[in-house]
Every structure is written in structure tokens, then in C-alpha cells.
Design goal:
single chain, alpha/beta, 3-stranded antiparallel beta sheet, globular
Length: 321
């Protein structure tokens, strides 16, 4: 019986930039649980925005009892990257131990391919227009914004991809004044949703503002515990397994969000196919799916998820679940 964690790096196909900075590789942690001759695995992406580092998250995983159950894990670790990797590894182990797919173990319907957004990172308007043109055939583009010149970037992307549906992500980079100024132009350019326009500590203002297009909570939404506080401020919540602390809480958050009338988006950090695989189960029937992490990589796991025609397919059992 063993629980191990390794650090893995995957080169990005090109520099990826958001309002908080740039990266050239995805740095992830892989948790592996071995019991009864069977191994399960799960991946997480520690995120500095939430006070996580590769070292601190790895230490949390390594400190766990290798015999821990998925039920006990929910109290043993807080929501976040460490719990995500172990929770998903436990689901994968259970699947391989029993021979039943995770969707069946979780009482879900058989998963189908889901259309995913493709993210254009923050750049100059000229470069973003070129990027949009290269990806213009994709059905849904996600635009990273959050800096001076965002209006020019939006115009440039629309020129580059005149027929694609567009959503935008400000990553907490706007003020209420900037959002109010940009909102009518977002509508004019056919933007379908704006993600986390204001910082978490200032998003109460959204309840007082006219929301002329759907607003999605990302950094403001982690688990069920904070969901009711978002009512009246947001129309949609972005479920990411690295925030919820794994598939177990992600499925529970999805059900709670549905019950409160929120539309659901399922997103990801920049990780490999192993990180996306459990999220595909949560993404079934979601209003927006953003599981494009592997599409941004120059290298991936083997086997990897299958992406075609703008859709991501459920994982092969050899990868996960």
C-alpha cells in the first residue's frame, strides 16, 4: 500500500499569459495510490492565487495516510489542489479495482463528447487577432483580458474570428467602472459571457449593477460552502476540480448550483489530459465547457484525451477512470 507524488512538467505550445503573468510550461503534481496490486492516479495544478506552491501541495499529499478513504479525505484536507489529486486518484483506483468506470460508480449517465472553448491568452491586439484567425474555425473562443487596451483586443479578436462564439475572462482584472464601460461593447461584439470581471473582495458591487450579459464566478466560487453568497451577484459558476478539491466535491457543487438556479461552466487550470479526464464527467450538460488545457500543450500524457471538431471525448480507461 503506497501513496506517492511526482512533479511533472509539460511544455506549452506557446507562451500563455493572463492578467497575473505568463508561463511557458505547465507544472503539475501527479498523485498515485497503489493498493492490492492496483494503481490509481490523479493530477493537480497548484495555483499561487490561492497560496499554493508545488512544495506545499506535495507536502500535504505526502503527509496523508496511504490507507485514507475518499470519504475521510474530504475532512483530512481542505478544498484545493492537494485534495483534488488524491480524490481523483482514489476514484481511478476504485474504478480499476472493480472494473467499473467512474461514471458508473458515481451514478452518472454514460459520458459523451462535449464542446470545449479554446483560450486565447492575453497579448497585443495585433497578436490576438492573428491567434483568433488561426482558431477561427473553432465554435467557441475564450479571451483572456484584464488590462489596458481590452477594447482594442476585443475588436481585434472579433475581426480575426467573425463567426466564432466568444466568452471573456478578466481574471479579477477590472474595476466596476471599467466593466460598466465595456459591457455594452461586449454585447455589441456578441460576447456571450464574462467571467470574474471584479476582484473577489469587490464583487458585491455586481449585485447593484445591471448585468447586460451573464456573469460567471470563478475565483469567487470554490465549493458549496460559499455558493449561496453568490446569489444575486452571478448568473453562472465555474467549477474547477483544483478549486473544489476533486471530483467528489465538484459533483456535489454541480448539483447545488443547479438547485440554486445557477448555470454551470466547467473549467480547468493549464494541465494535461489526466487533469481534464474527471472534469469531463462534471461537464456533461454544462452550459459552457472550458477543458482545453491539453490543446495548449506541446506535449501531453500517453494515452491522451481525444479532441476533434471542437469537442473533447471521455477519457480512455488506460488514462483515468
Amino acid at each position: 500500500m503506497a501513496l506517492s507524488v511526482t512533479r511533472d512538467r509539460f511544455r506549452l505550445a506557446e507562451v500563455f499569459t493572463i492578467s497575473r503573468g505568463s508561463r511557458t510550461e505547465a507544472q503539475v503534481l501527479t498523485a498515485r495510490i497503489s493498493r492490492e496490486g492496483v494503481q490509481g492516479q490523479g493530477e493537480c495544478v497548484p495555483y499561487a492565487r490561492y497560496g499554493e506552491t508545488l512544495d506545499t501541495v506535495a507536502a500535504r499529499i505526502e503527509a496523508l495516510d496511504p490507507a485514507i478513504t475518499r470519504h475521510d479525505l474530504q475532512d483530512a484536507l481542505p478544498a484545493g489542489a492537494a485534495r483534488n489529486a488524491v480524490d481523483c486518484a482514489l476514484w481511478d483506483w476504485h474504478s480499476k479495482r472493480t472494473g467499473a468506470p467512474v461514471w458508473q460508480l458515481a451514478g452518472l449517465a454514460r459520458p459523451k463528447p462535449v464542446m470545449t472553448a479554446y483560450t486565447l491568452s492575453l497579448d497585443t491586439p495585433e497578436n490576438m487577432e492573428k491567434s483568433a484567425a488561426r482558431q477561427a474555425a473553432r465554435p467557441l473562443l475564450k479571451i483572456k483580458l484584464g488590462g489596458e487596451g481590452d477594447m482594442a483586443r476585443l475588436e481585434a479578436v472579433r475581426r480575426g474570428a467573425p463567426d466564432a462564439a466568444i466568452i471573456v475572462d478578466a481574471n479579477e482584472g477590472w474595476t466596476a467602472e471599467i466593466y460598466t464601460e465595456l459591457a455594452p461593447h461586449l454585447v455589441r461584439l456578441g460576447v456571450q459571457m464574462v467571467e470574474q470581471p471584479l476582484p473577489v473582495d469587490a464583487d458585491g458591487m455586481l449585485a447593484e449593477m445591471e448585468r447586460v450579459l451573464p456573469v460567471c464566478a470563478d475565483e469567487s466560487c470554490h465549493t458549496r460552502a460559499g455558493l449561496e453568497a453568490l446569489v444575486g451577484k452571478y448568473d453562472m459558476v465555474n467549477i474547477k476540480l483544483d478549486k473544489t478539491g476533486g471530483l467528489t466535491e465538484a459533483l456535489a457543487l454541480r448539483a447545488a448550483a443547479d438547485a440554486l438556479g445557477f448555470k454551470v461552466m466547467v473549467g480547468c487550470m493549464v494541465g494535461s489530459s489526466l487533469a481534464m479526464a474527471p472534469a469531463v464527467l462534471v461537464a456533461q450538460g454544462a452550459a459552457i465547457v472550458d477543458l482545453d488545457g491539453p490543446l495548449l500543450l506541446a506535449e501531453d500524457r500517453e494515452p491522451a484525451l481525444n479532441y476533434d471538431g471542437g469537442a473533447v471525448h471521455p477519457a480512455p480507461a488506460e488514462l483515468w477512470g
